[in-house]
Design goal:
Blueprint (H helix, E strand, L loop, with lengths): L1 H4 L4 E4 L8 E3 H18 L2 H11 L5 H16 L8 H4 L8 H6 L19 H15 L4 H12 L8 H7 L2 H4 L2 H18 L12 H18 L15 H19 L14 H4 L13 H11 L5 E6 L6 H16 L4 E5 L2 H18 L5 E6 L7 H6 E2 L6 H5 L2 E4 L5 H4 L4 E5 H5 L8 H8 L3 E4 L7 H16 L3 E6 L4 H10 L12 E6 L2 E6 L8 E8 L3 H13 L2 E6 L3 H13 L7 E4 L5 H15 L8 E6 L13 E5 L3 H8 L19 E5 L14 H4 L2 H11 L4 E4 L3 H8 L10 H28 L43 E9 L2 E3 L13 H5 L4 H10 L2 E3 L2 H14 L17 E9 L2 E6 L2 E6 L3 E5 L7
Parallel strand pairs: 3-10, 4-8, 4-9, 5-7, 5-8, 6-7, 9-10, 13-18, 14-16, 14-17, 15-16, 17-18, 20-23
Antiparallel strand pairs: 1-2, 3-11, 11-12, 13-19, 20-21, 20-22, 23-24, 24-25, 25-26
Helix pairs in contact: 2-4, 2-11, 2-12, 2-13, 3-4, 3-12, 4-11, 4-12, 7-8, 8-12, 11-13, 12-22, 15-16, 23-32, 25-26, 30-32
Amino acid sequence: MMPDAHRLLWAKSDRGRDDRRWLPVLAHLLDVGACAWELLGLEPEKTLELYARDLGFATDAAGLEATRRWVCALVALHDLGKASPAFQQQWPEWPAKAQAASLGLSWPTDGTGPCPNPVVPHGVITQVTLPQLMRKHGWHRRAAKGIADAIGAHHGFRASPADQSAAERPKEQGGAAWEQVRAELYGAVCSALEVNGPPDITRFDGGAYMRLAGLTSFADWVGSSFDLGRYEPQHLEDPRAYFGRACKQAQEKLKQIGWEQRTPLASRVQTFAEVFAYLSEGRPFRPRPLQQAAEELLRGVSDPALLLVEAPMGEGKTEVAWYAHLTLQTTLKHRGLYIALPTQATGNAMFTRTAEFLERAGGGRSLDLQLLHGGKDLNQDFQALRVRPNTDAPEEQAANVRAREWFTVRKRALLSEYGVGTVDQALLGVLPVAHQFIRLWGLGNRTVVLDEVHAYDVYTGQLIEQLVRWLHALGSSVVLMSATLPRERRAALLHAYGAQDAPWADYPRLTCVTGGQVQARHVPADPARDRTLSLHGLGERIEDLAERVRTLHAQGGITAVIVNTVQRAQDLRQRLAQAGLPASEVLLFHARYRNKDRRDRERWVLELLGKHGARPERLVLIGTQVLEQSLDYDADVMVTDLAPLDLILQRAGRLHRHDRDPSARAGHARPALHIAGLHPETLPDLQGTAWGHVYQPWTLLRAWAILRQRSTLALPRDLDDLVQAAYQDADPADLPPAARTALEDARLRKVTQDAGGETAALFASIVAPDRFPGEVKLPMWDDDARPDDDPQAEQDGLPRTRLGDESVTVIPLFRHGDRLLLDPQPQADVAPLFRQDFESAPSVFPLVAALHERSVRLGRREVVKGICSHVQHHLPAKPALHWTEIAALRDARPLVFTERQGRWTAQLPNLGVEHDPELGLVFTRPQGGTA
């Protein structure tokens, strides 16, 4: 049948525009196989070796050649299911329909029988029909089923049992004539790729599945962009010749999207001093002890490895991660690097640094670097690297590090050779979302860096462990970085990468896992960095806190105050003003400012207190957790609320952070840490302060129990011992009975909460590689439609990368008469709200940027619940906000403020919100007072 049928069944069409332009199934199969062929040709040899292992071939030249041919043949067969009634009926005007019917390729219509169901996806029909064909050609049953599952999922979704049952019905896949044409298509693909007997494998494991599924989708995306007008019927008379022509077309397409040869940045393994010579400004670069030890540890690595770096801030952990990538890429032929961080802010900072590193290390080679998080389009450094299609600007041609447009689409971003972003983007690879295997394929045979791995709760921590398991299965190396980890958490991460045990070493330490073997090495810290902090307790009442801060301020110097809630920070700021502290000597910084205002305050912190800051004679810096994350500032004395012990230590890292003459620190030559809620005999009030809602009470009470009798902290010497003690169950022996009871009650609640987090992560994630495919967890949503850490996801029952309270992004707007303005000033720009506002603008980007700069994320339940009614009240009988059609604003909602007696306020059900230029957004109760 083939000489006629292969020209008749359609796979792609230009229907609705030109019914004469369409592509036969065989042509599309070979197009996509050709794309896979060219993709593998641009991959490092290690990638092909991984596929060879999947298919049971040797890794010599002959084995790799056979691997490449078989992998591409399997990828090509992805749309075999289009040779079915369920698919072919979807184009009623199909020109060759009558000819196909004359060959028996038809289906019941006109009421003569049940029609096939067009809802049954063709990928599912591939999945249920291909295994039988493969078994007839000698494939093992389990291997055939796994392969068909992988390539059948190329549109992003694994088939459910119900889908498979529907696709098995004859009316969907057709009878004997359809079986025959599928068999002939299978044979034509094998002929074009010159493959014969099947590989001798009996199963297809998790890593193999993700590698094949990811490559299939990627190749299909590229192959589906081929010009339909290039095809002529005579082209398929010789499938092998057609495949050769398709390979040339694939080369052009890959060149257009910027997919280039994946080669190491360095031609040989370099020393740390060689790589980072540019940092020393002409002097010889002297690696820190941690960096030197990492170089030695990586020198003998011959298999993918996990490197766990536990060291205090300032020891050069980021440079260790970059160096590990360079070394492992050179020795193991890894294909790229992704650096994952906890927040967009830390991701932005790392993106800028990584771009500079790649520019230095790339040796003039053209590299693609993507920023991966929901706010990337508004990052100026990323926009500066972005290359639009068909752009020939000289400055873009001259740049070595660029961000090509094709990879900026969310699902494609991890395919790029280099990337920096949030951990959420990587974690989507282990959640049942559409095309999760594309993300894992992009992370496969790569160096993946996970920074600040101590910063996550139990739920996200479990997802990270699952990600590490999959990275191990995919042949990737992993670098984990942390100030320090509890022993149990450390062991779990090492075991996830295949470690047989988890040997201990003194802190600071490096741990390397490769081939199941583990090396742990203590790296002595630089004694010049040792500091002894004096500890001072005080009550948790806001009055106690204000009095202590006022006293320290009077002594001069820089006083940093880190509290656990925004309301407490705002209250403290007001009390200090009432006590007479000049406004110029107090700076407030928290997360409840509009983005532009928050960025201004962050800039002020760095200009005043950064490494080269102006450092006023006296200043009180008040902030929340934003002051413990990533900001490089230096305080002379610090006051902090009681917090989990590892976070207290992280906060204390800003005390005397920079090398300064002690005499220049006013009355604070010796670093001192004052902790609110730390009284030796009195338990802190976790309810009245709301601290117990911010952190698990057990972690707070453990910190209190460990620190209550201490008068000093030696850092970093005490850091590891303190963190290990903080997460042990055994209580200190000298605890009062009431404290011991409170700790035990809190511990039991923590056990329950942690078990809930572990269970939630287990149900949310795909199964581990050694259990895959296991139960089919269907993709429930298209991740293109959701930002990272989507606050709506949990409400919708969708998988999330993080658990937590509900939140919503609002954009404060200010009413002046009948106008809504972006700022309180009467001359401010009018807020763009509806489609006509954007269509009339010369460029959309400035409008989107202006709105995003004024947005703020609010986690208050009354805001989340009441924002919809608020919008309906202030924008009645209006068309839908155009924001919902713009990715960067999709989940933003307007919060409308009205001026009353010189104050800008907005009203929600049961909650008022005031916009104060100094305090930020302040929540108030209808009856008065802050909320």
